[in-house]
Amino acid sequence: MYKIVEARSVGFKIKQFTIEAPRIARKQQPGQFIILRLHENGERIPLTIKCSDPEAGTVTIVVQSIGKTTSLLNCLETGDYILDIVGPLGHPSEIGKFGTVAILAGSVGTAMALPTANALKAAGNHVVFIEGARNNEMVVFEDEVRAASNETYIMTDDGSYGEQGLVTKKLNDLLADGRKIDFVLAVGPVPMMRAVSQVTKPLGIKTMVSLNSIMVDGTGMCGGCRVLMGDKSKFACVDGPEFDASQVNFEVLMQRNTMYRDKECQSLKRFEENKEAELEMVRSQFAKEEHNA
Amino acid sequence: MPDKKNSLPNRERMKIARIHMPERDATVRSRNFEEVNLGLSAEDAQIEATRCIGCAKPGCVTDCPVGVKIREVVDLIYAGDYLAAASKMREDNALPAITGRVCPQENQCEGGCILGKKGQAVAIGNLERFIADFERTSGQLGLPTIAPSTGKSVAIVGSGPAGLSAAGDLIQKGHRVRVFEALHELGGVLVYGIPEFRLPKTIVKGEVNNLRKMGVEFETNVIVGKSVTIDELMNDEHFDAVFVATGAGLPRFLGVPGEHLNGVYSANEFLTRVNLMRAYNFPEADEPVYDCRDRDVIVVGGGNTAMDAVRTARRLGAKSATLVYRRSEEEMPARAEEVKHAKEEGVEFRMLTNPEEFIGDEKGWLTGARCVKMELGEPDASGRRSPVEIKGSDFILPAHLVIIGVGTTANPLIQSTTPDLQTTKKNYIVIDEESTRTSKRGVFAGGDIVTGGATVILAMGAGRKAARSIHEYLVSGVWETVPAPVQ
Q1: Are A216 and B287 an interchain contact pair (Cβ–Cβ within 8 Å)?
Q2: What confidence tens digit (pLDDT) does each residue in A169-210 have?
Q3: How far is Cα B17 from Cα B120, in angstroms, rounded to an integer?
Q4: Of A95, A141, A93, nearest in space to A121 by CA
Q5: Chain A contact for B184, CB < 8 A?
Q6: I need a surface site. Which of B125, B229, B243, B272 has the fewest CB within 10 A?
Q7: Choosing among B220, B221, B409, which should be mutated to test the A contact, i.e. which has the most A CBs within 10 A?
Q8: Is the ipTM of this complex over 0.90?
Q9: Minimal CA separation from A131 to chain B, in Å
């Protein structure tokens, strides 16, 4: 049982949760993630940690409602509980002094990229942060992004905020202006990360991407999250989640991420028809626990 | 000792036929996850116990990896004192309801039974299961006595069979015991690996609760090596000793083309989804698994894990469930009972066959496996005749789902964050065989993380051995006298 000490909406269908998880808070480093489960019949889903407070013993995650579990999670409020959280998982982000670093983040990926951006800036890099979102309602953490970077660009698909266009458009513009970029981190949807890699690979710019393959245990035990790096198989949970983009087979990653598409839709539909009961079920298991305690 | 003694002459005892374990009908059970074996009745257990001729030097006891006093247990069953039998069992085996179900008895206790030399061995596994189940349903637990507190504490890493049996022994000695588990549920391979139809989860829960009643503490969702290190457990959380029992680690794949196709699973993933995450109950349970209904499923491997996977696929509605193994049936490491059950349930066995490539459609979904025929050549390092490919024998086996169950390699999470823990080249933890001590003071290890993939009972044996050694260390405080581990 892990208590939600603060839940607040930060964008359209995007919510930020600060949760009591002292062991994870003590150990978390930028780029690492947790796996959580909401109820006895719940699935385990990985979510990247935005930040943690070792003193308060809390970790902060940012969740966009996409499938059933994220939608259910985003119904929870301050004072509710999460059944299981485990972590911190994966290797921390590579932090070094590279020179000029471009961080490209898509919407909720911004939360994942923030701690790494802060660490890269603290390490003495000139951080260029390009945040992309579908529209103005999905631009998140603008103030924190500005604080974590030396140069900030906001891009929206529809031009409702910042500049219109994809994050790769801004990256291409900067490169066309003759800007020297030494290191790139891209965090977001797979097509976006692939597009970034397509820009940087021919130029030989070292680029890391944070891969979101399907996971179960997160400790390397099941191998479901395997990604193809050149001709080698790697496990995103223990070998990643960040990998050298030039080696990643994005096609295989996209194909593997469709593995349960039908079932994910079925689950989500079932949840939306039965939202209240499902939420009640999650809450009742903690009412019982609280009573026992 | 029991009042009622077996007075039947040995010659008469040996005439009694071994009691057959009642089973759920194969056509019914191959469509559900209910337990296959139904258990003996008290009457049948009595008859079976009568068959024991009470050897002066019982082979069953010497051949049991944890040294259960089987002869005494059987005498107590004969006398009808089932709770006393359970209590006697628990002195050496913390998890009798589990071992009664999953031990390969034919190679252990029953393999050592003198009756088996000419006829059929006493059904020790079935008797063990009977008394454990009797005890559980009676509500009266034959718990052993706990020694007064020593003030020492032990952290156990992993709640699988090695960890649980060590916990059971150490708590009896009066030490504080806390078990750390990476997953959200306790039991390790007993809950993520072994299916419900072979070992119902309520049985594992029951045994874990018995340990709780004895005073063992449990903490789930802790990945030692990530959430906390061994050094932090010892220095910050003040554990006097640590037992590393993290089990078999990373799944092995074949390394053939096409293993990334949608529809290729490791047995670990397939079984974890179905067992731990209850994907057989989708959409009631959220976690999905590949829809096996009316599809062709191939499982690669010949051990218990492969057998569990193929029988699980059958239960999920597979049109065909085929076991592909590169050696012959004789070399299969799976338990005899699993092989028999699998065949009854309609699993096809394709022996001396090896997949060389997985083939998929343009969207990346698996359609089949290109296999080659094998023949047996000279014996290899394992003593088994090694399979040799028959040139030009390729053929395509259609498949929508392939499950790879060919073993595991060590998970390096703990080793990589514990620099003074000596490991082999393959990342298994090096221990001194006798004392189970690692190269790091106060740290012991046992089970699959030392030996590589083995069986539940061997892991339990390792847990017991470690518990004895940890107790000695905690009492004496002496570490130095032990020779350094030999690699």
Answers
A1: yes
A2: 999 999 999 999 999 999 999 999 999 999 999 999 999 999
A3: 8
A4: A95
A5: yes
A6: B229
A7: B221
A8: yes
A9: 30
